[in-house]
Write a structure and sequence with these properties.
Structural class: alpha/beta
Radius of gyration: 26 Å
Largest sheet: 5 strands, parallel
Order of helices and strands: HHEEEEHHEHEHHHHHEHHHHHHHEHH
Shape: globular
Number of helices: 19
Number of strands: 8
Oligomer: single chain
Distance between the termini: 81 Å
């Protein structure tokens, strides 16, 4: 290029730059094309971003900064006379009604004794919960923190994979990263995206989650849970160092929801794998066809809470299915759940998928063999057992054997044991497991001052053989409304049993680690 061409190019770039600056200034003056902050692009993984920021109304308050399109931000006012409870976790925690917790505590105490705020966020595992938790300790001055987390370790890792993929590509991605920090780029995105704003899927709605963990080994799974244990322990210790009381909760999960990922060790003999899978295929072909609904292999075929088509906060009368004779013979709760209504949403508003699931669940509970003979199902049981002698740690095969054993009338304890084993061995679980809850119990027992609320065990003790299933769960890990209210009451009970003095105006910090 000649010197004249270089001069023309530089002049052109300067003019273009001035035009772009003018457009940015104009869009800013018009309040258009606001640039999402780091919390939106990082989805909560950026430790340098602030997820709690000062808020003008009322003066001295703080507000979350999550930028989630379907959930409002949480505003926490300045600390008053009432002791403050904060709850942390994923979408399960986000579904807890802290207003209801305040009512439960006030009713027990005879006055409004606590204020409670919910900082649970959908899809957040312990890594991102910890970032929010530590910032909340700094600015929100809690007296009690409640941790209910452990379902989302692999949901969170799946999001992290998405971010890593989006940032890959070296120089090819630089223009996009620069552009997304301009008002012009965001104004265009907002103008042409659906409804004028980008839609964020709920974490459980992603269809490609299976492929992300298709090759994960069980040793790698254990690495994730070692990190989970460390995150939970460090949150507890950080709170106790500040004199904040801690309630650490075990998590309730659906034993009747099929595991997500089943793999063989890297060095496993391919010929044995082929024999194993051949036995499984033959066995499954002998089972009633309706069981296919309960054994999905794709995320979109699983039952999700959103399939009930009812807004999270709505309270509905029990669905007609709960009044049917076949349900009454299904299972009856005892203990604190005995007189509680699960609050399943009204069946007239269910998605068709929900009806298919509940029909399959009820038929399975009745031991309906469909068009298959008992002899064929017994042969399926034997073939699954034979497959598991080749490789005893296959989560899906263990789960399939549990369903089969129930059909032929085997011991409820043996069925329950298989279901627990299947959940524990899941390579990329998106629900809880006894393994997760044992981590919680161990951290609580080893960290002086932490109060354990063994919520999962409380549910188990109310149900035959400890099998928490579809009557209290809306999907693999989310409870229906009645279940969430029951957990809220158990959390409130843990606070009252240990720190009733807080509501009496006692010293809110001194002795916080004593658990009296």
């Amino acid at each position: 290029m000649t010197p004249k061409h270089w001069i023309d190019l530089l002049i052109g770039l300067a003019i273009t730059g001035l035009i772009l600056v003018g457009i940015e200034v104009s869009l800013g003056a018009a309040g258009l094309g606001e640039v999402p902050d780091a919390t939106n692009w990082s989805r909560g993984f950026d430790p340098s971003a602030r997820y709690l920021v000062p808020h003008a109304e009322p003066p001295g308050s703080w507000q979350t900064r999550f930028k989630h399109k379907t959930r409002p931000e949480v505003t926490v006012p300045p600390k008053g006379e009432l002791p403050r409870i904060l709850t942390f976790g994923g979408s399960n925690t986000a579904g807890f009604d802290t207003g209801y917790m305040e009512q439960v505590l006030a009713k027990e105490l005879g006055s409004k004794g606590f204020e409670a705020f919910n900082l649970g966020r959908p899809g957040y595992g312990s890594e991102r919960v910890k970032l929010i938790f530590l910032q909340a300790l700094e600015v929100l001055d809690p007296d009690v923190v409640i941790l209910y987390t452990g379902h989302n370790e692999f949901v969170e890792r799946g999001f992290e994979m998405d971010l890593e993929a989006a940032s890959a590509g070296g120089w090819a991605t630089v223009p996009l990263r620069v552009a997304r920090d301009t008002r012009l780029f965001n104004a265009i995105v907002q103008r042409y995206s659906q409804g004028g704003e980008s839609r964020q899927k709920e974490p459980e709605a992603w269809d490609n989650e299976y492929q992300k963990f298709a090759d994960i080994t069980y040793d790698q799974t254990q690495e994730y849970f070692r990190a989970y244990k460390q995150n939970v322990r460090s949150m507890c210790e950080a709170a106790l160092e500040r004199g904040v009381r801690v309630v650490l909760c075990t998590i309730v999960y659906n034993r009747m929801s099929v595991p997500f990922s089943s793999t063989f060790p890297d060095d496993f003999d391919p010929a044995v794998v082929e024999e194993f899978e051949g036995l499984r295929r033959t066995a499954l072909a002998r089972l009633p066809e309706y069981l296919d609904v309960l054994l999905p292999t794709k995320e979109k075929h699983r039952l999700h809470a959103m399939d009930f088509s009812v807004r999270d906060r709505e309270r509905e009368k029990p669905a007609e299915v709960l009044q049917r004779n076949d349900y009454e013979g299904w299972r009856k709760a005892k203990g604190f759940l005995k007189k509680r209504d699960p609050m399943l949403q009204n069946a007239s508003r269910w998605d068709a998928k929900v009806h298919r699931y509940y029909d399959a669940v009820l038929r399975h509970q009745r031991r309906d063999l469909g068009d298959q003979s008992r002899d064929r199902v017994l042969r399926a049981e034997k073939q699954l057992e034979q497959a598991l002698t080749l490789y005893p740690e296959h989560p899906r095969a263990l789960f399939e054997l549990a369903l089969t054993k129930h059909l032929v009338g085997r011991s409820g304890k043996s069925v329950a044991a298989l279901l627990e084993r299947a959940a524990d061995l899941d390579r990329a679980p998106r629900k809880g497991s006894n393994m997760v809850n044992e981590i919680v119990r161990k951290v609580a027992s080893q960290t002086e001052g932490v109060v354990l609320a063994d919520i999962d065990r409380a549910f188990q003790e109310c149900l035959p053989n400890g099998v928490v299933g579809w009557e209290w769960m809306a999907d693999h890990c989310h409870l229906n409304r009645g279940g969430r209210d029951a957990i809220t009451e158990l959390m409130a009970a843990a606070v009252l049993e240990n720190w009733r003095d807080l509501a009496a105006g006692g010293d809110l910090k001194e002795g916080a680690s004593q658990g009296e």
